[in-house]
Hints:
This protein has 156 residues and is an alpha+beta fold. The chain has 5 helices and 7 strands; from the N terminus they run αααβββαββββα.
Amino acid sequence: xxxxxxxxxxxxxxxxxxxxxxxxxxxxxxxxxxxxxxxxxxxxxxxxxxxxxxxxxxxxxxxxxxxxxxxxxxxxxxxxxxxxxxxxxxxxxxxxxxxxxxxxxxxxxxxxxxxxxxxxxxxxxxxxxxxxxxxxxxxxxxxxxxxxxxxxxxxx
Length: 156
């Protein structure tokens, strides 16, 4: 039991707040982290960087390029990213990556596939837009009509 603990096999699901707040405690341990893949997948030779947001914070994950290929959607303004579970080694200050806090993924599991966001424009915004267009047309029309009448009076 002592040997397993000393090797750092914590293997507990943990959120970014707890990881970042207790980084020293989890440093070098195997953890389970889950969240939405956001931004771009940044390929680096045989590996890739992915950013995973659990709703509280975002952590960079260093992952084998083949595992990264399992991700179909990354979150942005148009898409909800795949929600994944990562099992890997947490690094408080990774020597391999310039002292950054990261996770080196051993496995990735897709929990929920991403999708296109269905953003609907609220009715009040549509009504406001139409009202502003009508106001613009009325003001422009009244200005042009005034100019036309003034030119007729000046010419006559």
